[in-house]
Amino acid sequence: MDRNWGRRAWEVLKAVGRFLRGRVRYRVTQGGLLFLLALTITGSGAFVTGNNLLFLVFSAMLALLLVSGFLGRLVLLGLKLELMLPRHVSARANTDAHIRLRNVKRLTPSFSIELAGKTDPLSGAPPILRTPVYFPVVPGGEAVEVPVQVTFPYRGRHRENLFVLSTRFPFGFLRREVSIPIATETLVYPAIEPGAHGETLLAGLEGEAATPERGRGQDFYRIRPWEASDGVRMVDWKSTAHTGTLQAREFAREDDLSVEIVLDRTIPRGAEGRFEALVEECAWLVWTLSDRATPFALLCDGRVETEVYAALRLLATVQAAVTRKGGEPPESSGESAARVWLSVWSET
What confidence score (pLDDT) does residue 266 get? Predict the structure, then answer.
């Protein structure tokens, strides 16, 4: 019986120790420094002079400091954080999300809470939340949800995001901070950016698709007399005003374009940065072709993807393979009007 009582007492002491140490960090503010200076002067004067009034003021100031620490710690207890992201997220893009701060304390509200992102101490990755969010009050047993913008610095699987909750409540003497990790896996697509060669590749594909025949493309073909079947959209008003009769603008016809994009993940040593840029160019090309309703097929590491989000998921997780010799383009999977071979070796 005595042994069980001693074990329970030891567990209680350890729990109290964890509560006192916890994960809360304290920083003295400028107002706190001034208050500590006034506290030191008042206490010194009370002990030197033996004045009861100074002792009373000193005791009140000391009690105020203790109450400030207790209330500030209580405000940060019992807070849970939830990050709600959209289904599709790209690197280095401002993404609209929602953050829900829940107060699990039934009766005690939390006041003056500031939420900010935190740099990962292991990888050095910058925080995804760039702008702090302020919560004036979170009622007990309730949750407050606010819209935010987050930015993921790189592609891939993000398994943990770090945030910091801080408060100066109630008197602003101390700033208390507690780190909160959110362990939710998020698949981040590559940045949808054309890079140095993306627009050049797309222009080459469009050049292969265009033919010098009348059709419904985007490149100008000729001016001709307007016909009733053309519709008002085809009228060229400048030529009509010049000739006095209705004139229509024709565009060059574009053949149905099907594109095969082959990404070579083999790289020489030291070319990791160029491979990341190549992945982003590939992602931009895939996104642009899909946006223009152009059929495509992405070939990489023995996989073939023809749907835009499946291709982006593949590009989000593809890793470079360091070799001494570059790979060879695989055989075409079908008849395509154009084929793009993306490889670091073609630039070395």
Answer: 85
0.90 surpassed by pTM: no
3-state secondary structure of 187: strand
Q: What is the pLDDT of residues 113-168, one digit of tens each?
A: 999 998 877 777 888 998 999 999 999 999 999 999 999 999 999 888 889 999 99
CA gap 18, 28 in Å, rounded? 22
Instruction: End-to-end CA distance of the chain: give it in Å, rounded.
Output: 77
Angle between helices 308-317 and 272-291 (to 10 degrees): 170
Does the domain spanning 27-189 belong to CATH 3.40.50.300? no
Amino acid at 280: E
Instruction: Report residue 43 as tokens.
Output: 């206490």
Q: Is the peptide bond before 139 cis (omega within 30 degrees of 0)?
A: no
Regions of the chain with pLDDT less than 70: 1-23, 196-221, 228-232, 251-257, 325-337, 345-348
Return the amino acid letter for 270: G
Separation CA 4–CA 74 (nearest Å): 31
Q: Which of 307, 301, 308 is nearest to 330 (CA)?
A: 301
Domain regions of the chain by residue span: 27-189, 214-254, 257-347
For the chain, what's the residue count? 348
Task: Provide the residue type at 346 as one letter.
Answer: S
Residues 6+ apart with CB under 8 A from 324: 268
